[in-house]
Amino acid sequence: MYHWLYSISHISMELHDYLEELFAEGGVKLAASIKKWCAGIDYEVQFWSEWFETKGSRWPESYARRIKPQPLGEHLIKLLPPSGPCKVLDVGAGPITIIGTYVPDRESTFAATDPLARQYAGLMAKFGVTAPVVTQFSFAEDLSTRFAPDEFDLVTSRNALDHSIEPVWGILEMLIVCKLGGYVYLNHFENEAEAEGYEGFHQWNFTARAGDFIIWNKDREINITRLLSSIASLESSVDGEKNVKVAIRKHHHLPIAPLEYQRRLRAGLLESLISVGA
């Protein structure tokens, strides 16, 4: 047992088990996820290269919208505090965030992250494109090493978190950097890995069942609503276009010791590298 949780009485059993198992077995599970993720990098970079070269490929309206400053969507503005300055983070933003870059008539700060930020910066330089908000390098799984705890009023991810190495871990990190009372908002295609045959970054499925948010693949199924029940409330649904929409409101801090969490994170990642290379 790893002694890095504050109090078992203040944590759901699902969250306790997930944190305990995240780096278990010499990092074998994590290494398998890393291997699958790395195999998808070339495809992702090629996709965005063609997107820039053709000014949007099949989505020219999206291209035209992304390269200019745009207001945050009304459905996301509703999740912000009613007044005062606000901070918004887009996780897995790709080369240019799609959620918006400012809140009308209000002081606002936007940040965007993506693990392929450096590759995207090279593509944008090649095609002479400048982003209204520069995408910074960060995995969803290590947001708390790059941003302060409780820094953002809203942390969101659109069609990206299901492409991550460990999306559940990514959600925990999003909650760490989200303020108490703030929201983590997710909007993803339902069961994308199944639809894409588990190719490239498509290794995880998101869905909602009986109001519970579920993340699953061929190896695992995790009920996120139950997992986060001790620290957050969730509303999840699947709309008519098969988009899974999840609003997670943070009520309590994660019951983990931050320094010990970072120690375990670093040690587990390094240990998993042995299996990645095997």
Describe this structure in words.
The structure is a single chain. 38% of the residues are buried. The chain has ten helices and ten strands. Helix 3 (41-53) runs parallel beside helix 6. It has one domain (8-276): Vaccinia Virus protein VP39 (Rossmann fold), CATH 3.40.50.150. The model has no long low-confidence stretch (mean pLDDT 90). The two termini are 26 Å apart. Strand 4, helix 7 and strand 5 form a beta-alpha-beta unit. It has a seven-stranded mixed sheet. A three-stranded antiparallel sheet has the order 6-7-8. The protein is globular. The chain is of the alpha/beta class.
Poorly predicted regions are none
Helix share of residues?
25-40%
What top-tier CATH class fits best? Alpha Beta
The helix/strand series, from N terminus to C terminus, equals HHHHHEEHEEHEHEEEHEEH
Q: Give Rg in angstroms.
A: 18 Å
User: What is the distance, rounded to the nearest whole angstrom, between the alpha carbons of the first and last residues?
Assistant: 26 Å
Largest sheet composition: 7 strands, mixed
* Annotated CATH homologous superfamily: Vaccinia Virus protein VP39
How many individual β-strands? 10
| Strand residues, percent | 15-25%
Q: What does the overall shape look like?
A: globular
Number of separate domains: 1
Lateral strand order in the biggest sheet: 3-2-1-4-5-10-9
Quickly give the structural class: alpha/beta
Corresponding CATH architecture:
3-Layer(aba) Sandwich
